[in-house]
Write a structure and sequence with these properties.
The chain has 13 helices and twelve strands. The protein is of the alpha/beta class and 335 residues long. Bound molecules: iron/sulfur cluster.
Length: 335
């Protein structure tokens, strides 16, 4: 997927979904209510701002389980999208769905309407976590659907979550390993947020679920990002998009933070610096150089990374400076 693609979102909230994942209240998460129909699609296209020069326009059906919606409604939505595609008003169509709502016939239909990217909500590759989360599918369903999608030539985006009921950092890392083995074109990582009016909220209130804090999410996602980076799989989203509802009190606990991705990148850089400083003699004066665009992430919010590194390695002095233009590494110098 082009990094410059301009997304035209159409939310399909909870339509057709026969499941009740413990964390899900699609209305709160998408900030949308009501039923999406052909007019919704036409409006999304007509009202979208013209993209900056050369950017592609991708119509994206988000939320819900698109391929579990009754087929006539799918065809209504896809028909409106396909007409726009044929007229050159959009460049591509993407949708998201569940692993157990994918088979050969479904993919034939999506192909006929010009869909080219399918996002699959895997969430975990641990069957116990999937069961405790009320997902209603297994890790094998994810593997089978992902392989079929790739075999049929669609782009595949996989979504995973961290901090679900029954999850541990090891299980999350194993999920990432198994998703990497499926060779997706990109992943989205959603640390669990406790949203009001969900089963997870009730479990949390009853003391049967321990909140996945922002710190828990930052810590484990700082392991995941380098794994995906090494596998050359782009992480195209980390954390829920902030919405008025979520920020206004619907997100009652859990890993909801408007700058979660920044916090995680900051921790990734902290961990890299820790590795490089392993051999630092106590009382050393150290200079860390990072690309200019990473400077504030390396320093951390409220200079947290500087404070931690100084304490952990008993440094006499620590300076964080920009690297020469064009260099991408993180370098450490002892003085
Ligand atoms: S499958 Fe998707 S839409 Fe349905 S309950 Fe789960 S997360 Fe929500």
């Amino acid at each position: 997927m082009s990094a410059r693609a301009c997304i035209l979102p159409v939310f399909v909230p909870h339509q057709g979904c026969p499941h009740a994942c413990v964390f899900c209240n699609q209305r709160h998460i998408s900030g949308e209510t009501g039923i999406a129909n052909a007019d919704t699609v036409k409006r999304a296209i007509a009202e979208a701002a013209l993209p900056p020069n050369g950017a592609k326009r991708q119509l994206a059906f988000y939320g819900g389980s698109f391929t579990a919606i009754p087929v006539p409604r799918q065809e209504e939505l896809l028909g409106a999208a396909k007409e726009a595609l044929d007229r050159g008003e959009i460049d591509s169509i993407r949708l998201s769905t569940r692993p157990d709502a994918i088979d050969g016939a479904v993919l034939d239909r999506l192909r006929a309407y010009g869909v080219d990217t399918i996002e699959l909500g895997a969430q975990s590759m641990d069957d116990e976590v999937l069961r405790l989360s009320g997902r209603g599918h297994t890790a094998e369903d994810v593997r089978r659907a992902a392989c079929l999608i790739r075999k049929r030539g669609f782009s595949l985006i996989l979504q995973m979550m961290t901090g679900l009921p029954g999850d541990t950092p090891d299980r999350v890392i194993e999920t990432a390993r198994r998703l990497i083995a499926l060779q997706p074109d990109g992943v989205r990582i959603y640390p669990t947020v406790i949203v009001r009016d969900t089963a997870l909220y009730d479990l949390w209130k009853a003391g049967q679920y321990r909140e996945h804090t922002v710190e828990d999410a930052v810590s484990v996602c700082a392991v995941l990002l380098p794994m995906f980076e090494q596998a050359e799989i782009p992480v195209i989203r980390l954390g829920l998009n902030p919405t008025e509802d979520l920020s206004g009190g619907e997100a009652v606990a859990g890993a909801y933070h408007p700058a979660l991705g920044e916090l995680v990148m900051s921790r990734v850089l902290l961990n890299r610096a820790r590795e490089l400083l392993k051999e630092a003699p106590s009382g050393a004066a150290v200079e860390i150089r990072v690309p200019g665009s990473r400077l504030s992430q390396m320093i951390g919010q409220k200079r947290e990374n500087i404070r931690r590194l100084q304490e952990e390695f008993a440094l006499k002095d620590l300076k964080i400076l920009p690297l020469d233009e064009g260099k991408e590494e993180l370098l450490v110098f002892f003085r």
